[in-house]
Design a protein that fits this description.
The protein has 267 residues and is of the alpha/beta class. It has nine helices and five strands.
Length: 267
């Protein structure tokens, strides 16, 4: 009796080792090299949607407020205008900080927090327009890193690097060597829960994460409000979660930004 030959196109992954919605097509796990401009565009669109929502809300309640008393209407107008000016002003300052490389914010992590909060809506808008979440996520990581670089001043404390278990052995060794030269601890995190556990145990003053875009945007959103955080997107020539690579030059820049150590002089 003839047996069916194994399907050579089936991804050689175990359950839990791949993206849940990955079909096995390598084209779906392409590595992106975006700039901060893509997230800036969709972040601005998301902000416009939010402001339009405030405008619609005011339009709907305006007749009611006028019925009560004109004072309520004037107060609502002032509050609405104030909210719009704050949102537009903050967005403009954040974008200016990213593209000028100068910290124009009174709090260095405010920009990361604001960008993280608007990211879900930006992802929704982008997906409707045919932009994948990983492509926009790649741009978001670059945008977020630029904010850290513009506003962070290296200080005494502990910086750690979180790496995924799927990182290729040679790359893992290279990352560990770079960490040793900079006095930075390197830890393997198998997921968001493990990463948070490492952070609680080590209590670092800054974190560098190496992962795919979807893990990085989640990690930055969770950690950035408390700790300066930078991300380095991995490369996936064999698909997600297997023998991934990392751009060591990008990692070096992140280490130097957070620690102030010049690794080029040490080589």
């Amino acid at each position: 009796m003839e047996q069916n030959a194994p399907d050579s196109t089936k991804p050689d992954r175990k359950l839990g080792d791949e993206w849940e919605d990955w079909s096995g097509n390598l084209d779906e796990s392409v590595s992106y090299n975006e700039t901060a401009r893509l997230f800036t565009l969709y972040g601005a669109l998301a902000l416009l949607v939010i402001l339009a929502g405030f405008g619609l809300l005011f339009y709907m309640i305006e007749p009611r407020l006028h019925q009560f008393h004109p004072v309520f209407l004037y107060a609502a107008q002032i509050i609405t205008l104030f909210i719009i000016l704050v949102f537009v002003g903050l967005g403009t300052i954040i974008i200016a900080s990213v593209f000028t490389g100068r910290n124009l914010l009174f709090h260095s992590r405010l920009g990361q927090v604001a960008a993280s909060r608007i990211l879900p809506l930006a992802l929704t808008i982008a997906s409707r327009l045919g932009i994948s979440r990983d492509r926009l996520g790649n741009s978001f990581v670059i945008f977020s890193n630029a904010l850290v670089k513009a506003g962070h001043k290296p200080e005494k404390g502990k910086t750690i690097i979180l790496i995924p278990r799927c990182l290729k052995i040679e790359m893992r060794k290279a990352v560990q060597d770079m960490g040793e030269k900079a006095g930075v601890g390197v830890f393997v995190a198998t997921g968001g829960g493990e990463a948070r556990k490492v952070i609680r145990q080590e209590r670092p003053s800054a974190v560098i994460g190496i992962a795919c875009e979807r893990d990085l945007i989640s990690g930055i959103s969770d950690v950035a409000p408390k700790i300066p955080t930078m991300g380095v997107c991995n490369k996936r020539p064999e698909g997600p979660c297997k023998n991934t690579l990392v751009n060591l030059d990008d990692l070096r820049k992140a280490i130097e930004t957070l620690t102030g150590v010049n690794l080029e002089k040490q080589t």
